[in-house]
Specification:
With about 350 residues, the protein is α+β, with helices and mostly antiparallel strands. The chain folds into 3 domains: about 110 residues; about 120 residues, 2-Layer Sandwich (D-amino Acid Aminotransferase, Chain A, domain 1), CATH 3.30.470; about 80 residues, no CATH class. About 30% of the residues lie in helices and about 30% in strands. The chain has 11 helices and 16 strands. A 5-stranded antiparallel β-sheet has the order 14-13-12-15-16. The longest helix has 20 residues. The two termini are about 15 Å apart.
Length: about 350
């Protein structure tokens, strides 16, 4: 009988810290797999052939075994970079990390288990170009958007909106951190600090002039959408948890609400049933079981889709609005997955 629930994450994941006790109240065999420890605290064994197909992982620092045949559910929470000894040769790090990740992800993918959510599907849902095109097909209102490396494209776009455009990153917002630093970094959003986050940024005329004729890296620019407030809409299975973020009450959060030097007000909010269904259908189109979607509500009460975070944070919402029982929904889904 399958009775093991695996949380694939990192040693500094405070969200997993809070969820695991809730799981342990419901089931006996909960195993935390910290990717940052994958090189130094794990022993692996897989034999695949005509007479055998056994795969197991032994976690030395907690004296736990994981056998793929026993796995019921996997929560692909926040696997981060793998830490190696400080004297490990730098020119071997990238190769070693890829080899370990290739093996571990293959082990878990070979398990006949329920996922929140499968990492291949998370990766597919994270591509901003495709995501925006899909959102438009689903009937969401989206900001006018430009991806470009060319000043010849950027200037007309800038002028079209009278300079009211923003720049945002397409991948992770963290710059200047080594893989080992990132693996050791806490995931509590309040503790990250502004210097580590590349925020959504208004494009000034000076920034436009410094863009240069051609960039080597494509950049994402969008029409700036005027806000009444914002919504973080978290979906777990078929359950929807919308929270209003009153970002316009503080100057520091008007463009990007991720400024934790000020106190931002969060509340539960009702959204139209049609929008709620559309969001669940959008998530399901990727084969996901979890998403955190961001919307702007305009002064005219229009809902504008910004992005879908297929593995986005939720603890900061739940801490601010405890009646949104997101953690309980995740535990329920892991313990009693759909058949």
């Amino acid at each position: 009988m399958k009775n093991t629930i695996v949380i694939a994450t990192d040693i500094h994941d405070f969200t997993a810290d809070s969820i695991i006790p809730l799981l342990e109240e419901r089931v006996d065999n909960v195993v935390r797999f910290n990717f940052s420890s994958a090189a130094m605290d794990m022993v692996y064994a897989s034999e695949i052939g005509s007479d055998s197909s056994q795969t197991s992982i032994y976690i030395e620092n907690s004296n736990r075994h994981i056998n793929t045949g026993d796995i019921k559910s996997i929560w692909w929470r926040k696997p981060e970079h793998i830490i190696f000894p400080e004297d490990f040769e730098d020119n071997h790090l990238q190769f070693a990390r890829k080899e370990i990740f290739q093996y571990i992800s293959g082990v878990f993918q070979s398990a006949d288990a329920f996922w929140i959510s499968n990492p291949d599907k998370i990766f597919s849902a994270s591509r901003k170009v495709e995501q925006l095109k899909r959102a438009k097909k689903f009937g969401f209102s989206i900001p006018e958007t430009l991806f470009t490396t060319s000043i010849d494209s950027l200037v007309p776009f800038y002028n079209r909106f009278n300079g009211k455009i923003i720049y945002k990153v397409m991948s992770g917002p963290f710059l200047g951190l080594s893989p080992n630093d990132r693996a050791r970094m806490v995931d509590s959003l309040e503790e990250l600090g502004a210097p580590l986050i590349t925020k959504t940024t208004p494009v000034s005329e000076q920034a436009l002039l410094s863009f240069g004729e051609r960039q080597f890296v494509p950049c994402l620019f969008q029409q700036y959408i005027e806000k009444k407030y914002e919504i973080r809409l978290t979906i777990v299975g078929n359950k929807v948890f919308p929270a209003a973020i009153f970002s316009q009450e503080n100057e520091q959060t008007k463009v990007d609400w991720r400024d934790y030097s000020v106190t931002t007000r969060y509340e539960t909010v009702d959204i139209p049933a049609e929008l709620e269904k559309k969001c669940v259908d959008f998530m399901r189109s990727y084969g996901l079981e979890y998403s955190a979607m961001d919307f702007v509500v305009t002064p005219n009460d229009e809902y504008v889709f910004l992005e879908n975070n297929p593995n986005g944070q939720f603890s900061f919402i739940e801490n601010a609005v405890p009646e949104l029982e997101i953690s309980k929904a995740i535990v329920d889904l892991l313990v009693n997955p759909p058949s």
